[in-house]
Specification:
- With 491 residues, this protein is of the alpha/beta class.
- The protein contains 22 helices and 14 strands.
- The strands form 3 sheets. Strands 4-1-2-3-6-5 form a 6-stranded antiparallel β-sheet, with no helix packed on it. It has a 4-stranded parallel β-sheet with strand order 8-7-9-10, with helices on both faces.
- A hairpin with a 3-residue loop joins β5 and β6.
């Protein structure tokens, strides 16, 4: 319940179902309506029940107020439509006719609205807005699927502001498949043209065209050097020179593993591929590389709701790495998407392919007996878990197993809360992404102050790029976990 002692009084009054309610302000975007000492009856209020008696300081028209929900027994919270205009809510779009999102009703019914997901949701943590939480978003999905509610502009906002970090899933005692629900919902919204604007679709179309991506990344890196690229579009510093690409050490028939190189990972963090190759060489593992069709895994397309594109890219990637050898991946987002191919395509081949995918940290930890002994580096390292490694793959502990023999590790105190990168999220939702990042930076600051660490490791390019500039301003270096042992072996 909001702290009513901190609200500003004397903003007017409204009448809720015939009863006069006092109005105060709680925070920047929220009004608090208090019905004296009388508890509200447990009925579902509707905006049509609200009659403005006096201007509550945000406009007197009833249709400018949007019912948000009931908090406890004495307080009902409403907010004004339009709070994201110019740093607030998007302009209202046309109301859609009632329709289905084609969601699995059993998956929807799994949620018992217990609220244990709320502390693990980054958008809820930075806004305090129930609608921008997994519970609130699932309630909106139910409203459409069960009660025939329209897919209006508010629903679009609730779904498009989800980072898709899936931090709610490990916290959920009921096992709600939130990732499947939000992905299916966003696919329907993208099909309608309600999310994923044309410029985002054009940008995503470049990712499978690796030569174009490399050339464009180089041009973008030079433009960045001349201050021509807003930080909203690329937070981290892109490499002007990325160095040589890794070369396969065996054919596809004879290799111990496949080394998946991806699209953005190869364009922006190729040095980590070389580090991965160094570690595999030290383990005596030979590796093959995917063919020309195996560049982009489709993770960003799936996040953007472009289901058909994600399926087409999955089929291409599967063809590029045939056989039974493990597929080693050093990008948490790519690894999570490759492991999702079974559910995405629904075929036996896709299921078998997904079962072969393993994160590099997990692979190294599982074959530690093949590693040459390394002396400790003496380094103190802060470990930042990418969401798709911790919450989706559940493979964050092997990173620690790999690093613990050679470095002192420092944990963050935020229970793996998202950093706000979310693939393209920092581009399409820059304000929320920045607010979420600030919480992550505060956690890193606390860890550094307590330990004196100078290095932060993160196993995902999006996270690294999203945090890199802010951390470099603090005198900290961001590295991929595999870079640490690789440098030690090179020395």
């Amino acid at each position: 319940m909001p702290d009513l002692g901190e609200r500003e009084p004397d903003l007017g009054g409204v009448r809720l179902d015939g009863r006069l309610a006092e109005v105060g302000r709680q925070g920047r975007d929220e009004l608090v309506f208090v019905l004296g000492e009388h508890p509200l009856d447990p009925f579902e209020l509707d905006p049509t029940h609200v009659e403005v008696v006096e201007d509550p300081g945000v406009g007197a028209a009833t249709d400018e107020l949007e019912l948000f929900g009931q908090i406890g027994a004495h307080v009902t919270r409403l907010r004004r439509s339009g709070w994201r205009n110019g740093g607030g809510r998007r302009p209202a779009g046309p109301t859609m006719a009632p329709m289905s999102l084609s969601l699995d009703p059993e998956a929807l019914n799994t949620c018992v609205s217990c609220g244990l997901c709320l502390p693990h949701c980054p958008t809820y943590r930075v806004t305090g807005d129930e609608a921008l939480s997994p519970r609130g978003r699932i309630d909106a999905m139910r409203s459409i699927e069960v009660r025939g509610a329209p897919i209006d502009s508010d629903v679009v906002e609730f779904m498009s502001t989800c980072v898709q970090c899936r931090g709610c899933e490990p916290a959920c005692p009921s096992g709600v498949p939130y990732g499947d629900l939000i992905e299916a919902t966003r696919s329907e919204l993208a099909r309608q043209g309600r999310i994923t604007p044309w410029w985002q679709r054009r940008g995503l179309a470049v990712l499978p065209r690796h030569g174009m991506l490399l050339a464009g990344s180089t041009m973008l890196a030079w433009a960045q050097r001349f201050g021509l690229v807003p930080r909203r579009f690329v937070a981290g510093r892109l490499p002007v020179r990325r160095g040589p690409a890794v070369r396969a050490t065996a054919t596809s028939e004879g290799a111990h593993v496949w080394l998946y190189t991806g699209c953005v990972m190869d364009a922006w963090m190729r040095s980590t591929h070389r580090s991965t190759a160094t570690v595999l060489d030290a383990m005596g593992m030979t590796y093959a590389l995917p063919g020309s069709t195996g560049g982009c895994c489709g993770a960003l397309h799936a996040h953007a709701g472009l289901h058909d594109d994600a399926v087409a890219l999955a089929e291409r990637v599967m063809r590029s790495m045939p056989g039974d050898a493990p597929i080693v991946v050093n990008s948490a987002g790519c690894g999570a998407q490759l492991q999702h191919y079974g559910a995405l395509l629904g075929t036996e081949d896709a299921i078998r392919f997904a079962e072969r995918v393993v994160d590099i940290g997990e692979f190294v930890a599982a074959h530690a007996d093949r590693l040459p002994e390394l002396r400790p580096t003496g380094a103190t390292i802060v470990v930042q878990d990418p969401c798709h490694l911790r919450h989706v793959q559940r493979a964050h502990e092997p990173v620690r197993e790999m690093l613990r023999p050679i470095a002192t590790l420092v944990e963050l105190d935020d229970a793996g809360l998202c950093c706000g990168a979310g693939g393209a999220y920092s581009v399409v939702e820059p304000e929320l992404a920045t607010d979420i990042r600030d919480r992550k930076l505060a956690a890193i600051d606390r860890a550094v102050a307590a330990s004196g660490a100078t290095v932060v490791v993160s196993a995902n390019p999006g996270c690294s790029m999203h945090l890199e500039r802010s951390l470099s301003e603090r005198g900290l270096t961001v590295r991929h976990p595999i870079d640490v042992p690789a440098q030690r072996w090179r020395e």
